[in-house]
Amino acid sequence: MSRVGTKKRVVFTTWGSFGDLHPFMALALELRQRGHTTVIATSEIYREKVESEGIGFHPVRPDLPFPESAEAAELVRKVSHLRSGPRYLFRKLLGPHLRETYADTLSAVEAEGGADLLVSHQVPLTAPLVAEKTGIKWISSVLFPIAFASAYDPPTPPQFPGLRTVAATHPFIARTIYGFGKWTTQPWFEPIQQFRKELGLPRSRNPIFEGQHSPALVLALFSKVLSRVEPDFPPNTIITGFPFFDRNITAPPPELLRFLDEGEPPILFTLGSSLVWIAKEFYRTSIEVAQQLGKRALLLVGDPRNLPQAELPKGIAAFDYAPHSLVMPRACAIVHQGGIGTTGQALRAGKPLLIVTAGQDQPDNARRCVRLGVARTLPLSRFTVPRAVSELSELLNKSAYGDRAIRVGQQVTEEHGTQTACDAIEGML
């Protein structure tokens, strides 16, 4: 039942991979159970997934290519590049479509007699413009701690990871580094400032720093085990815990359940929903690693092309996809890429983690998990058989990792992130 007494229409806008979509599906489903109408405005390729859950859908450009296509692999490769990835995302991928994205988001808000509330992800960038122009109530959200760029807990920038050590020496030094970052990225967002002028809106602050946050409420949709509210977070920030969703349209294959039942817990190897398209030798290396360790392995490969042509060795099973909430608790250890959605599921499962990072938020998420005492990490480019065997041996042979992972998993579970976030949303309504 709704706690506000009146049915409201809430529009969520997001864009990206499953890690960007699933949290908002969790929130939309919870609010629908409370009696509200919910709509997710995102890329057309997710229409079937969203509508199959009974959630309203509205397409937002730019369109994403279908995952199996060569275009998708090239997009993931460019966005995940350590140095040029962020520039490509904002200048080449999102920037040229600002007016289309704005028009689509505005249409989603105004449809069906209008929305009562807009809840936005960091991407796309036009939700703040729609909120300012229409006056609709607006909540912003972030999915990972790096989005806050705190001087009191500096993140690990994927382009220059060593800067984190320098920034952590004093908040003044961190703020100086961030000032340089704002200055260097300012040209990326001049098209937004020009568009704001056309709309009759004043210039905003940097859209990937302060400018992304709502003045009314900011939902940090991650666990408090990863970060606390720092003094330089927006003053209206609530860390809610992870909103979890990972259902698939089809039921898990019987072969998967049979594999899980017929032997000791396997090592789970996954690259989430994006990096599977540029996996290269990751899964072939994973098979060798498991064999050298004498362990069973479950591979979530995303695409059969990631597997060797030969028959899989005994004790090794591979599937395109399986719900993380099903397979992660039944693993002995989890090897994954460090995306925030996969990280949340892995932490909740209470298993030791080897986090193999590529770019974006992954190195920062990995560092925080290492700090928790539940993980070890190495870059994807250094995921070799000797290194992986060494790291996994540490995780599996030292009980401190497993014991700590169980305690952290209990904390993450007890946060009830979906309910906490929806309570805050209803407070705005």
Question: Topology, please?
Answer:
Layout: E1 9-13, H1 18-33, E2 37-42, H2 47-51, E3 56-59, H3 70-79, H4 85-94, H5 98-110, E4 117-120, H6 127-134, E5 137-142, H7 163-167, H8 171-185, H9 190-198, E6 218-220, E7 237-239, H10 254-261, E8 267-270, H11 282-293, E9 297-300, E10 316-319, H12 324-327, E11 333-336, H13 340-349, E12 353-357, H14 362-372, E13 375-379, H15 385-397, H16 399-414, H17 417-428
Parallel strand pairs: 1-2, 1-4, 2-3, 4-5, 5-6, 6-7, 8-9, 8-11, 9-10, 11-12, 12-13
Protein described:
The chain is α/β, with parallel strands linked by helices. Helix content is 41%, strand content 13%. It contains 17 helices and 13 strands. The protein has helices at residues 18-33, 47-51, 70-79, 85-94, 98-110, 127-134, 163-167, 171-185, 190-198, 254-261, 282-293, 324-327, 340-349, 362-372, 385-397, 399-414, 417-428; strands at 9-13, 37-42, 56-59, 117-120, 137-142, 218-220, 237-239, 267-270, 297-300, 316-319, 333-336, 353-357, 375-379. A 7-stranded parallel β-sheet has the order 3-2-1-4-5-6-7, sandwiched between helices. It starts with 8 loop residues before the first strand and ends with a helix. The model has no long low-confidence stretch (mean pLDDT 92).
Brief account:
The chain is an alpha/beta fold. It has helices spanning 18-33, 47-51, 70-79, 85-94, 98-110, 127-134, 163-167, 171-185, 190-198, 254-261, 282-293, 324-327, 340-349, 362-372, 385-397, 399-414, 417-428, and strands spanning 9-13, 37-42, 56-59, 117-120, 137-142, 218-220, 237-239, 267-270, 297-300, 316-319, 333-336, 353-357, 375-379.
